[in-house]
Amino acid sequence: MNRSLSHSPSHRSPLHRRPLHRRPTLAAAASLAAMSLGLYLLWPQAQDFDAMTGPEPSQDAEMAVSPPRTASKPESAPESTEGERLAIVASKTGPVADQMAGDMPLDTAVVTAVETESKSAGQVTQLAEAPRLSVSRSPALSSSPSTSLSPSTSMEMRGLMPSQEVARIAPLPSPGPSVQMPTDTSEAYPEFDASSVRVTAETPVSTFSVDVDTASYAVVRSSLMQGELPPPQAARIEEMINYFGYDYPQPDAEAFRPMVDVFASPWNPERQLVRVALQGRAATPGPRSPVNLVLLIDTSGSMRSPDKLPLLKRSMALLLGELNDDDEVAIVTYAGSAGVALAPTAASNTEEIMQALESLAPSGGTAGEAGLSQAYRLAGQMNGEDETTRVLLATDGDFNLGLSDPEALERFIADRREGGVYLSVLGFGRGNLDDAVMQSLAQHGNGQAAYIDSLAEAQKVLVDQLAASLEPIANDVKVQVEFNPARVQEYRLIGYETRALRREDFRNDRVDAGDIGAGHQVTALYEIAPVGSRAALTRPSRYQQGQQVTEGQHDELGHVALRYKVPGESQSRLIETPISPGLTTADSEASFAAAIAGFGQLLGDDRYLGDWGWDEAIALAEASKGKDRYGYRAEAVRLMRLAGGLSDR
Fold it and tell me: Do 229 and 603 contact (CB within 8 A), yes or no?
């Protein structure tokens, strides 16, 4: 079995450009998927649906979902009624996505809209067209089984994470042919060398910044669903691991709670994995502080495709449904130049905000620097005492006017983050996705980076995880791990290559690091070889000097220290915990994180995995899915199967 991929950033396997199916097969597969979807929606009592969602809710609390309509002429399609899709219409396209749509669980995406093209019949299978986006902003719904809800009322759908308010989304109009991965791309990803083994006696200390970004996993998924292996540099393992939620205990008093445990490595029982996990405290109960959002939207010509600006507008509609009446929203656009499309407006005025969004059209170049300057100026005017102000940049990352170099953009953002305005980045589309620029902006703007490839992902990022974005609980969070050379021969940090810090940066409060929001989780895995292990790749130094340590310290495998700042403070706080000896049995949370770490290594640099391959990764992930309430882990298993099949070609 061919498991190895080229590790050279400049080399791309032919698999990266070769689709799995030709268009006639694609059209047939997509048509079958659409038919299967219609039957699935008309049969809500199916046993597999019940198995995923649990007991059937009462009939009066059930959502009415109308099936897709088929029309020979799109313009004659009936008008949308109260049975139009509520909350989520996840549009996934491409050869593999179309083929798999009939098997996709409804806990991952409540409804999957499969838009297909049949050249021979000249027909389009589509959802009822709706010319406008609308947002429903309603109070939280009671979970009482006796609650009566009409079909026109926005409600929480089965399988979705709970949310206070749910946006009402008009279905996506059919764009014609399914969106395909471009044959020739100009995508850019951060360059890095995979973490290598460090000899503890020579380099006992490892320091890195936390990372709560999730863009990498979504980009990997997008590539695999198009029938292509992702570029190796697109697979940042820490972002893949942190995409998933884990069952970690809540902290008591501090902003977050660190946890450390040690268990056997699944790919080499002679080695061990050290898990360092952080759980941020939950969002503060009761009303939150007002939020000011500046939506900085890329309207350049490169945003024309359906998976870019059209999907962006519908994603923003989801976000607006989650805001409070005392929040404010402004819109800045940039193409060849920048301008204010909407002055600061109360979030309660959804009609005016949606009209501004609907009026946006793609054209011109990408003056990202001008847009950022305008957005920061406007955010500064909106920012008030005890308020959270954030610029939310939505783009494909293609900056071709003004500043475009990542290092220059870093300095540009660093000069403006001191004003208390956070910057987060949402990536859309493929072909010219500049992931390197997006990562640079988010890391230096005290925000997060996410990639939106469907409305299901928009729901996860902009609704389910909104509290983490709107309520920061810790700034400049750094982790420093020191291993005991008397117990640990060697170690390597799996992932976090783009987040590495110097040893002296840990105590320097002027050095920027990642931020954590309410409810955020961070997981890091170290692979270690104990002293005397037959799996050690290095040999002890002949002239190594013993360390002067106390009796208790001699037994420790190492020591974990964390520094963070409370938002608004300039001096960091310290949390410390030892790494105790002795193996624990890996629970499902630890095992699944290890499986995803293996997934990421198999996509990129797998030199440390030995004979452990796709079959083992799939088996481990399948066995450790746990409750998987929303189906994200099941989706990861399917993606592993796709990647394994593609890597064998």
Answer: yes
How big is the chain, counted in residues? 649
Closest by CA to 307, choosing from 138, 496, 149, 90, is: 90
Three-class DSSP category at 500: strand
Task: State the CB neighbour count (10 A cutoff) for residue 645.
Answer: 14
Quick one: CA dihedral 356, 359, 360, 364, positive or negative?
Answer: negative
- The CA distance from 424 to 235, in Å, is 20
Q: How far apart are CA 52 and CA 47, in angstroms?
A: 9
Closest among 416, 567, 406, 557 to 477, alpha carbons compared: 567
**How many angstroms separate the CA atoms of 296 and 294, rounded?**
6
**Which residues partner with 521 through β-bridges?**
279
Task: For 603-619, write each residue's pLDDT tens digit.
Answer: 999 999 999 999 999 99
Cβ atoms 566, 476 nearer than 8 A: no
Q: Which of 503, 446, 541 minimizes the C-alpha distance to 201? A: 541
C-alpha to C-alpha distance for 65 and 68, rounded to whole angstroms: 9
Orientation angle between helical segments 588-603 and 632-647, nearest 10 degrees: 30
Other CB atoms within a 10 A radius of the CB of residue 39 amount to: 12
Mind listing the pLDDT tens digit for each residue in 430-459? 988 888 888 888 888 888 999 999 999 999
Closest listed residue to residue 520, CA positions, set 476, 562, 469, 589: 469
